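Fold this sequence, please.
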Amino acid sequence: MELVWRCSIFLILLTAGALAQFEDIAGDYCGGRIQRCCDGRIDSCAIPILGTLCYCDQFCNRTDSSDCCPDYWNVCLGIKPPSPLIQQHGCYHEGQNYPYGHTVQINCNNRTEFLCEADACLVEPEAIQAINGNSAQFGWTAGNHSDFWGRKLEDGLVYRLGTLEPEKFVLAMHPIKQKYDRNTLPMSFDGRIEWRDTLQDVRDQGWCGASWAFSTAAVAADRLAIQSRGHEVYPLSMQNLLACNNRGQQGCNGGHLDRAWNYMRRFGVVNEECYPYISGRTGQVEKCKVPRRGNLATMKCQLVNAAERKSDRSDKPPRKGLFRSPPAYRIAPFEDDIMNEILQHGPVQATMRVHPDFFLYRGGVYRYSGTNSQQRSGYHSVRIVGWGVDSSKRNPTKYWLVANSWGRLWGEDGYFRIVRGENESDIEKFVLAAWADQEDEE
């Protein structure tokens, strides 16, 4: 019998809790002031540090945010800083430390062995502790999403993402030119409220790298519902895209967005109810079930308007052709252009770079923490459905409101907020959209 013991190491040495925000910056801050500490909130009770300010007032030590000076807890509260975490190299077993890759015979009778490996895990408790200990600095909190526990980071990058980096000629696409008055753009916009009855629900792609298919089908469905004024609110089939758009695509191992939109333009897809998603459970992509010249009638697809939850019985003849899309177009990588496009026409599709810490996101406005900086990242595609400003901190933070495809138990009910206007994690670098095709084509 061979017992495989896997252990991994987190290389960021931070102290626990809020004491860790400026732990590496020694010096007298609060201790160097004439009036060392201040009661309540006193914005002038501050000291310059790293191009910003740290504070010595009671307000800095609130539970949801902390911008206290490094010596605040020691000088003002009398709390000594904790000892740093001890970095462990290798695997520790029965009082002895073994280097990575070392195989040891533990019991000579049963010849039981363990193998110590250094595979990074998708959920690292040390990373959660480090991020939450610096949540004021990062602006968000981390947690253990149970579906990710026990999985390798490599599994997450391959099967929880799935969007291949755009090719050079695709990145060379010229964005459309928009004419609008920037002063008319609202400070905040929430598509979940504005399009309450038409916006697609958050789905879970499971363990299949299909974000390319999920985001494409969802954006196409959102825009069809919005631009048809609620007459065609149909979830579109991700499985159809995944199984049938196979030229130059890699199924559950990833796909290109431009090729997904090209397939939507040339062939179209059926509705989700007609061709349900199963690859998230199986991890496999079966043979395409939709003939190239098929339509909703030949596929015997029943259309049920999701907004009304009843068969579509409007005066318009029932749709027979598949759901297609005109050619996709690119939005300029400027926040105002992206905001105007969403406001006027509906959610947009964005490609983003996912770092290991993003899998741990629980809430707040995401910004890459810099932890696990030596580990790989991957590409993901998501739907931007709105924007706003988080004013819960001393310095307000602009954000995008984004729908993910990891189910509602992840993040903020399946959504996340990410810093807006700074191209955080490449979220504004490559943004696509397409008009809805309301024509009945066979």
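The CA atoms of residues 367 and 424 lie 7 Å apart. DSSP finds eleven helices and 17 strands in the chain.
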